Each structure stands twice: as structure tokens, then as C-alpha cells.
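Whiteboard transcription, Tuesday session. T.W. wrote the C-alpha cells on the left side:
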């Protein structure tokens, strides 16, 4: 119930058309920096009210690194001893426990309490103690990701072995309130029963903490491949990928707050043939899955990942690398609410590529733009109160945050601040 008032304020703003910021929050921006002794991770925390359109923020005004920057206020910075792979903000499921910021590194899972988070630079909290028991993964998780269910967290480490690109990932289901990677108490999932499913796979959890998987030819629940009610074939579906080289690039489960019904959404990418189309799959976990028709050919959208943060569903394009990164395969962004809704091309160009994105409780989309060879963090902030297709220049802020040489933003998290 901690943030019920915040949610109600968001709904009220959406209903009245008000765009007044009623939620105090910070945006966690993660980037990795090379040092003389190796790569370290930086998490920089910004006051979201100073980033939003209409706040007075500008590209030139945000290049200051001072904590007293009055335009795009950098509130504080944490430095970690390892590079950062992913961030995930978790609201507490217990009234007596603080919210948590989860951080995935190539070799560890860490959890930090958000106690003391603030928008006041004079009161910035130090890096707290990691509260994950036995945090070591004992595997290479450079391409890992985190997905939340109801009371569990799914940690997935896809294979990084170029000689075994179709190997099953390593994965753990972790108790949100008692997290541990102890190999005796909480061993990695045995996914061997999924070995007959065409790989590679993307995994997530639904609102019942059930494992959901997506392969190039099949989507399903759990690991019982003898129960035909638990999986569906994608072969022969209309609007499905036209090449055999398309592979799942992201998988998310979205829950309707009114009905509590869950829907799985999947995206695909083509690392080999360079197919630029957007392939969005939707499945209600029971009936036949559906591929949503891609936007008309004159619309340049090559989306392959979802923004974090819930509804509305936002799809974006990030570079597809095999091993060189394409400047065309993976680009632009759109809201999806039964159809793709893109910002006007006169407001936001459709050649931009993105490395991370999160939709805040304040209904602003924070998207980190990927610019090859350019240091710093270029951030696009879009007003998502109104129709995306009617976005005006007033509803967009384009910012350069504290340049760090050769450092690309790798993850974002929106963290409400208790008042």
C-alpha cells in the first residue's frame, strides 16, 4: 500500500490531462567505465523532475557534472567494483521492509535497500550493504537479465560461448524477501526438459511465478512438454517472421490490473539476415498466440526490446550485433496498445537506437539513446500522458547527462522516493 497514493495521483493526472509532476523520484542511470585496473560500474541518480519536458532542462544545460547543477540535477553517484549488466527496482512486498534496487554484474547478483533515497544532494545515501546471501553466480552473466513475478525474481544468464550459441541458459528463481544463490539451498533451474524446444530461448515469470519460455517456434508455460495445454506452436501463424534466422530478443508478461489476467508479449530480432521488420507476439497463456501485423512499410520501426515499468507497453530498437553492431537493425520506439503508435517523425527521428528504457510511475518514458563511439549518456524523455502519435516538441526533452568517455548507458531504473 506504500505507493497507492502515488498510483492514484498518476491515474488522476491521466484523467484530468494534468502534467504536473506529483511523484518524487530519482532515475538510476548505469554505465560502465574503463579504468587502469579494469572496468567499474557507475550508477548516477538524477532528480526526475529536473529531466522532464518543461523543466528547463536542455542538452547543453545537462552537461554539468556538479552535484549542484540546477537544471538536470545529479543527486549522487555510486561506484561499484564490477561492471553493471542490469538494474531492477522492486517495490517491497512487506510493509516493514524497504524497497530494493537489484544490480546484476557479470558474476554476482546484488540487492541494495533504497532507504534514504532522496532528491537532496546534501543527504545522498552511501552505497549500502549487499543483502543477497551467497551472491556469486559461478557463471558468465555478461548478457543476463532480471524479470519479476509475483513474489519471485527470475535471473537468467544466456550462454556467452560463441561455439554454443544454442545452449540453454543458466537461470534461478529467487525469493524476493530472502534472496540467495546458495547452490544447496537454491540451485540453478534444471532446464534440460526444454532441450527439445528450438533454441535460443527467452524466459520470464507470470503473475503466478510460473516460468514462461519463448523459442523461435514455440511458447509455453513451465517445463512439462507432455501437457499440450501448456504450450503453443508458432509455426504457420500469420505475420510471423519470414526468415529462419529470427530469434526471440525479449519476453515480458503484462498483467491487467482490473481483471488480473496476464498476457505474454514477445519480440524477435534477426542477427544474421538483417530483417528490419518488427515482430510482436501476444499470447493470453491459453488460446492461440498472435503475431501483430508490423507497421506499414513506410514506417521505420525495428523494435526488439521492451521498456521496463509496465503499461502502456513500449517497444524500442537496440543495435543487433553479430559481432558488429548494425545501425539499421534495431531502431525507433513506439507505444503499443492494440496497434503501434509512433511519435511524429517531425518530433522524434526514427533512426535513433536505444540501449535501455523505463516508463516511470509519472508516465514519462526515459530512454537512453545509443550513439556508437560517443561518450556520455544521451537521454530522451517523452511525455506519455497523451497520445504518443500526437506528441509535440513541448513533450520531448533530449539531454546529455554527465559525459563519461566511451561509457554507454546499459540500464535504467525509476525509483520513487518516500517523502
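and on the right, the sequence the group agreed on:
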Amino acid at each position: 500500500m506504500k505507493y497507492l497514493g502515488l498510483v492514484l495521483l498518476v491515474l488522476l493526472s491521466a484523467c484530468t490531462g494534468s502534467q504536473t509532476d506529483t511523484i518524487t523520484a530519482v532515475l538510476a542511470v548505469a554505465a560502465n567505465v574503463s579504468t587502469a585496473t579494469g572496468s567499474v560500474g557507475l550508477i548516477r541518480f538524477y532528480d526526475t523532475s529536473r529531466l522532464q519536458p518543461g523543466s528547463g532542462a536542455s542538452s547543453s544545460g545537462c552537461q554539468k557534472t556538479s552535484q549542484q547543477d540546477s537544471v538536470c540535477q545529479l543527486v549522487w553517484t555510486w561506484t561499484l567494483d564490477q561492471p553493471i549488466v542490469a538494474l531492477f527496482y522492486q517495490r517491497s512486498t512487506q510493509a516493514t521492509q524497504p524497497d530494493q534496487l537489484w544490480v546484476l554484474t557479470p558474476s554476482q547478483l546484488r540487492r541494495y535497500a533504497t532507504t534514504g533515497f532522496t532528491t537532496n544532494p546534501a543527504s545522498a545515501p552511501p552505497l549500502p550493504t549487499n543483502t543477497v546471501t551467497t551472491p556469486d553466480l559461478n557463471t558468465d552473466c555478461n548478457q543476463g537479465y532480471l524479470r519479476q513475478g509475483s513474489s519471485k525474481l527470475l535471473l537468467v544468464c544466456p550462454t556467452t560461448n560463441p561455439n554454443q550459441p544454442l545452449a540453454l541458459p543458466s537461470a534461478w528463481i529467487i525469493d524476493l524477501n530472502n534472496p540467495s544463490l546458495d547452490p544447496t539451498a537454491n540451485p540453478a533451474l534444471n532446464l534440460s526438459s526444454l532441450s527439445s524446444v528450438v533454441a535460443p530461448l527467452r524466459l520470464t515469470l507470470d503473475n503466478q511465478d510460473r516460468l514462461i519460455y519463448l523459442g523461435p517456434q514455440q511458447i509455453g508455460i513451465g517445463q512439462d512438454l507432455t501437457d499440450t495445454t501448456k504450450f503453443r506452436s508458432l509455426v504457420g501463424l500469420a505475420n510471423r517472421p519470414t526468415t529462419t534466422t529470427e530469434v526471440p530478443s525479449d519476453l515480458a508478461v503484462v498483467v491487467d490490473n482490473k481483471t488480473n489476467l496476464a498476457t505474454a508479449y514477445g519480440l524477435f530480432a534477426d542477427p544474421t539476415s538483417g530483417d528490419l521488420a518488427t515482430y510482436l507476439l501476444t499470447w493470453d497463456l491459453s488460446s492461440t498466440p498472435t503475431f501483430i501485423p508490423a507497421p506499414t512499410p513506410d514506417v521505420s520501426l525495428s523494435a526488439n526490446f521492451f521498456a521496463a515499468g509496465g503499461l502502456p507497453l513500449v517497444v524500442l530498437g537496440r543495435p543487433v550485433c553479430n559481432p558488429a553492431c548494425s545501425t539499421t537493425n534495431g531502431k525507433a520506439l513506439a507505444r503499443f496498445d492494440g496497434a503501434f503508435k509512433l511519435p511524429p517523425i517531425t518530433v522524434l527521428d526514427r533512426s535513433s537506437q536505444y540501449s535501455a528504457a523505463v516508463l516511470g510511475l509519472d508516465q514519462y518514458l526515459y530512454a537512453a539513446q545509443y550513439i556508437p563511439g560517443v561518450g556520455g549518456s544521451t537521454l530522451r524523455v517523452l511525455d506519455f500522458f497523451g497520445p504518443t502519435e500526437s506528441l509535440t516538441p513541448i513533450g520531448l526533452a533530449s539531454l546529455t547527462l554527465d559525459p563519461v568517455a566511451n561509457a554507454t548507458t546499459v540500464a535504467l531504473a525509476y525509483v520513487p522516493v518516500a517523502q
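Someone added at the bottom: Residues 1-21, 63-70 have pLDDT under 50 and may be disordered.
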